Amino acid sequence: MSLTQMTTNSESNPSEPRSTVRALDVPLPSAPVTTGPAMADLPPSPVRQFLSSRGSGKIADQAFAGLMLTCALSIFAIVIFIATILVLRSKLSLHAFGFKFFTSQAWDPVSGDFGALPFIYGTLATSFLALLMAVPLALGVAVFLTELCPKMLRAPISFLTELLAAIPSVVYGLWAVFVLVPMMRDSLGPFLVKTLGWTGFFEGANFGVGLLTASIILAIMILPIISSLTRDIMNAVPNSQREAVLALGATRWEMIRVGVLRNSRIGIVGAVMLGLGRALGETMAVTMVIGNHAEINKSLFAPGYTLASVIANEFSEATGDVYLSALIEIGLALFLVTIVVNTIARLLVWAVTRGAPARVA
Amino acid sequence: MGVGIQVEHLNAWYGTTHTLQDIDVHIPANHATALIGPSGCGKSTFVRCLNRMHETNPIARATGLVKMGDVDIYKDASPVEIRRRIGMVFQRPNPFPTMSIYDNVVSGLKLNGFRNRKVLDETCERSLKAAALWEEVKDDLKKKSGASLSGGQQQRLCIARALAVDPEVLLMDEPASALDPVSTSKIEDLIFQLKSQYTIVIVTHNMQQAARVAENTGFFLNGKMVEFDSTHKIFTNPRDKRTEDYITGRFG
Question: Which intervals hold domain ABC transporter (chain B) (predicted)?
Fold first, then answer.
């Protein structure tokens, strides 16, 4: 009945659609008897009138699509703009040192000899050490929050983690100077020498400031980002996946490993990448505790220097065009390091997940 | 071989809602038992109580006696041990999307620390054959992901996954409700073959399905088991007026 109504309304010739209905071999009451008088009795529908008076919205849709495209393209524009400016402003140093800039350990403003390697080392070493400490901890926090935490505790813990992310980095730096540095010098450092001294990573004088202290403060700073993103990703894993694992006789830990962590691994890598991004570029807190000494040293107690710290520390007092240009090239180096690290991470994800789809159905 | 299930005074709650009220039933071994009833009547809760999946929901609670053979599943064993012996197939196919077809099938064995490659390979083949999926996937067992299959194939993959751990009881919560008629009939054929080796409990909205595959049928209404009898009796000569009304489509 409803089918005949629809066809008689949409088609001007009622005999044609009815023949298609017959072809479907559906037993229908003859249309004119039931629909004809019923339709005539009804007042004109205001909803239908309103809907038919509206346009197709074609122009607005196209305008909207165009606007969104502009927004998306602006990302490309910004990246290209920044890269161009960095290259243009560091021309002097690019000419003077060439590729050697990235492999040279020299940083001598007096004689005008510059190289970025100690800074690249400092940035990479502190960031990866920070990841090494923060990722397991963040995963633990996220797993606890999504899978094990009693409902009552969930909100306060989530709130505190997010609060950690909102603290300005200079405050972390201050805390590190007054708490972490003495702790590293007096208790944590000696303990590490005693237990892990044989690795060779904990040698030389320990003044409290250095690569390890900077890494710890970085780890604390990226912990909330990684854990809150990972928590959201794990929350998004459908319950049916957890039940599927449990129904096979899995323990709680096995359920978390197979049903939750495995399904969210790509998102977790993404969260780690965001954390790494912050660690690579973090300036203030690191500058306050890393010791600011351009030198490559295997010992984690040794003072170091990062790409971001050297720009922050020396930009205002850079005398001479080559010195300034070299600092801008350091910025370029930081830009490149970030791109390279992200690319490697994406390649890793691609290699691991080849063949398997990324998302949970 | 399957094992029978004895249920006495089973009550279950979600929060304050009393979803199952005083269920008493005996589910015989190596038979298929169908559970029918309108939506929200407690069929799914009932099967979830049989393998203790019900209690994975933090607000859910259950009391009463459920005996699988001689084992009181709420007293004598942990949920993990119970679920190793009672397989479950869910309403919506839930293969592991990050695993290959092969890994999906043997996931239950691998979870429990089974590492013998040869046995794993054999189990995979046997389970996929039992689930009538072998011919369709045998060429890309390790190449394709479980999520790349069609809905009907995914559900048969989930059945294969449940069979791989060689359970004594197989619970199926509306296994064909999300599937097209062709896949549905494949799964019904499957149940027909499997019941010689397993005790099967199948929840279904489709009464023809119950009539086709099950020897016994239970009718649930508002959290109570109104009637439990041989499928033939339920569909031809039910004792209870409410059962008759439901079967003949007068409500629900």
Answer: 5-247
Q: Which two tokens stand for residue A46?
A: 């205001």
What's the CATH code of the domain at A171? 1.10.3720.10
What domain range is B172 assigned to? Answer: 5-97+168-248
Is the Cα torsion angle A282, A285, A287, A290 positive or negative in sign? Answer: negative
DSSP state of A27: -
Q: What is the CA radius of gyration of chain B?
A: 18
Task: Count Cβ atoms below 10 Å from residue B103 Cβ, excluding itself.
Answer: 20
Here the ipTM equals: 0.90
* Cβ contacts of B107 on chain A, cutoff 8 Å: 245, 248, 258
In a domain, B225, yes or no: yes
In terms of CA atoms, which chain A residue is nearest residue B106? A248
A249 class by beta-carbon count within 10 Å (0-12 exposed, 13-18 middle, 19+ buried): buried
Best CA proximity match to B209, nearest among B222, B200, B221: B200
Q: Is A149 on the interface with B (CB under 8 A)?
A: no
Residue B36 pairs in a beta bridge with B219
Q: Identify from B111, B127, B168 which residue to disrupt to test chain A contact, counting A C-beta atoms within 10 A and taking the largest count.
A: B111
User: How many folded domains does chain A comprise?
Assistant: 1
Tens digits of residue pLDDT in A311-323? 999 998 888 889 9
Q: Which residues contact A320 (CB under 8 A, 6 or more apart)?
A: A109, A112
Closest-CA residue of chain A to B141: A355
List the single residue in B90, B148, B161 with the smallest CB-CB distance to A243: B90
Task: Inspect the interface and report whether the beta carbons of B111 and A238 lie closer than 8 Å.
Answer: no
A68 falls within a domain = no
**Residue-range definition of the domain harbouring residue A106:** 90-353
Task: Tell me which H or E stretch contains A108.
Answer: strand A107-108
d(CA A265, CA A27): 55
Let me know if residue A228 belongs to a domain. yes
Pull the structure tokens for residue B169: 């009881």
Q: Is there a contact between B97 and A359 if contact means CB atoms under 8 Å apart?
A: yes
Q: Which tokens belong to B166?
A: 């060689």
pLDDT per position as a tens digit, A241-251: 999 999 999 99
Q: Per the domain annotation, does B104 fall within a domain?
A: no
Domains contained in chain B, number: 1
Whether pTM exceeds 0.90:
no
Q: Residue B105 domain-assigned?
A: no
CB B246 within 8 A of CB B232: no
A154 interaction partners in chain B (CB closer than 8 Å): none
| Residue in A279, A319, A314 with CA at minimum distance from that of residue A294 | A314
pLDDT digit string, tens, across residues A30-52: 555 544 555 567 788 889 888 98
Nearest alpha carbon to residue B222 among B62, B44, B41, B45: B41
Query: Which residues of B fall within a CB distance of 8 Å from A243?
Result: 53, 56, 88, 90, 94
- Tell whether B51 lies on the interface with A, counting CB pairs under 8 A: yes
Q: How far is B158 from chain A (nearest CA, A)?
A: 9
Q: Taking CB atoms and an 8 Å limit, are A246 and B111 in contact across chains?
A: no
User: Tell me, what CATH number does B202's domain have?
Assistant: 3.40.50.300
Answer whether residue A143 is part of any domain: yes
Task: Output the CA torsion A194→A195→A199→A203 (10° steps).
Answer: -30
B244: pLDDT strictly greater than 80: yes
pLDDT for the residue A37 = 53
Amino acid letter, residue A70: T
